[in-house]
Amino acid sequence: MHKGFSTTLIRGGEPQADPPPPPAPLTTPIYETTAFVFDTADEIRQYNEGHGGRFLYSRYENPTVMAVEATLAVADSAEAGLVFSSGMAATSTVLFALLRAGDEVVCGAAVYGGTRSLLESFLPRFGVPARMASSEELAAPERLLGPKTKLLWFESPSNPTLRCVGVARIAQACRAAGVVSVIDNTFASPANQRPIILGVDLVMQSATKYLGGHSDITAGVVCGAKPIVHDVEMVRRVLGGVLDPQPAYALGRSLKTLEVRVARHNASGLAVARALEGHPAVARVYYPGLPSHPDHAIAKAQMSGFGGMVCIDLHGGEPAACRAFDQLQIVRRAPSLGGVESVCSLPILTSQWGYTDAQLASAGISRGMLRLSIGLEDAGDLIADIRQALE
């Protein structure tokens, strides 16, 4: 049969109307293809010139991937978004896109261990030094920004102590100094905190966590204004850290339940934190929803919910933490966070593995800490399990 159809189909000598177009899909299809077909050289030329609305190669763009990027941008109240193969792929691509030799990065000391390793071990090889700042120093960001400072990276709430800093004040100070502000919003998610509205230039999140929410995809996301996101996208094309269409589809599906999942995480996280505060085995509970948290007032002012992450510091240090960790029954012993299942990790063995005592102290981390990611199970069952492990 001829490649194209005429305006009518001839059946038994009778002209018939064209078949109706296929119905629009309710959910985004998975375009699991590496490349897209063109009919003419002119079509490729138009694509290269930015016209025609077509696709070329899935490392550059893909309909499934672009659909979830658009959804994430809306969730973050941003103009544009990009998804990556992991949170660290997102982090490294942002840094390579925005920094040059001779620039300086200021970074909150209480950040994910992989981020700190990238800043302290890799970027200096390319002539980009990093300067770590405590939560107290971030409270006065204008004092941290020097003539060579190009970018300020921070977390709020931070990993694992859930320290919070004034996002709007940091954003304002960076804007006044011509410094790019980037926040890792993984612990909060856009359901609890919208940093773009507070003035931050870029929001990075490990979509492996709350955005994915089911412990079955690895992904990262960056959202912000179109010009800066475009710069990051051009570097992503070269580094190749784009997300595959299959997990992009799964991420888009998970975003449909983000608000209801996070509401349950918030409620159960607060219940667990309240139940553990004052327990004889617990020296301190870190949860921004508790009035005892040093940054409770800041969190209350800029967050709509306090999340499902709870960090506890035990009397007896590392031995006590390991004993309690080994006794958990409902809460699973695993790294990562933000899934429907409750998990527990020891920061010194996972996210802050390899930290020196000085690095741990600068991040406010002790060897007796347990980091709990409270899932969607019954809060009473979780509290009972944690108590029996502590006792």
List the main descriptive attributes of the protein structure presented here:
5-stranded mixed β-sheet; globular; alpha/beta; 2 domains; 7-stranded mixed β-sheet; 13 helices; about 400 residues; Aspartate Aminotransferase, domain 1; Aspartate Aminotransferase, domain 2
Shape assignment: globular
- Which bin fits the share of residues in helices? 25-40%
Q: Identify the CATH class of the largest domain.
A: Alpha Beta
Strand order of the largest sheet: 3-9-8-7-6-4-5
Category by helix and strand content: alpha/beta
| Measured distance between first and last alpha carbons | 76 Å
Domain module count: 2
Explain how this protein is built.
Strands 3-9-8-7-6-4-5 form a 7-stranded mixed β-sheet, with helices on both faces. A 5-stranded mixed β-sheet has the order 10-11-14-13-12. Helix 4 (113-122) links the parallel strand 4 and strand 5 (130-133). It is built from 13 helices and 14 strands. The longest helix has 19 residues, at 258-276. The protein has helices at residues 41-48, 63-75, 87-98, 113-122, 135-138, 167-177, 226-239, 245-255, 258-276, 296-302, 317-327, 357-362, 379-390, and strands spanning 9-11, 14-16, 80-84, 104-108, 130-133, 149-155, 180-184, 202-206, 220-224, 282-286, 309-314, 332-333, 343-345, 369-373. By secondary structure, the protein is α/β, with parallel strands linked by helices. It has 2 domains: 41-255, Aspartate Aminotransferase, domain 2; 258-390, Aspartate Aminotransferase, domain 1, CATH 3.90.1150.10. Helix 2 packs parallel to helix 8 and helix 11 (317-327) crosses helix 13 (379-390).
